[in-house]
Structures are given as C-alpha cells and as structure tokens.
Design goal:
The protein has two helices and two strands; from the N terminus they run H-E-E-H. The chain has about 60 residues and is α+β, with helices and mostly antiparallel strands.
C-alpha cells in the first residue's frame, strides 16, 4: 500500500528556473542590469520579481 502523499507527490514536472535579467557586481556589491543600471531602480522588474525576506543575522544582531 502506497502512502497517501505518494499520489500527490509524483507526476509533477520540475520547472526550469529562468536566468535572472541581472547579475551581481562585486565592485558595487549589488545587482545590476545588462546596461549597468542598478536593479533596484527598475520598478517594473522589482514588481515582477516580488520581494524576499531574510533572517540572516537576526539571532546575532538586535537591529535586523
């Protein structure tokens, strides 16, 4: 007998993640578009990508 979840966990195709339209610039220490503009300045792109949250450092820094 198969587990209940097995019916829902199989048969799902993995989606290929599209390459982001920006890259990280080590010198500036931020993401930039192909034309050199900062990613954060492109409002349409920011709306498309959404936001993220991070908990990095929250256990060690009181101001995170």
């Amino acid at each position: 007998m198969k587990q209940f979840v097995w019916r829902y966990a199989t048969g799902v195709e993995q989606q290929q993640a599209a390459a982001p339209p920006f890259e990280y610039d080590d010198t500036l220490q931020l993401n930039v578009l192909a034309d050199g503009r900062r990613t954060a300045k492109d409002k349409a792109l920011m709306l498309q990508l959404g936001t993220t949250t991070s908990t990095a450092g929250s256990a060690t820094h009181f101001d995170d």
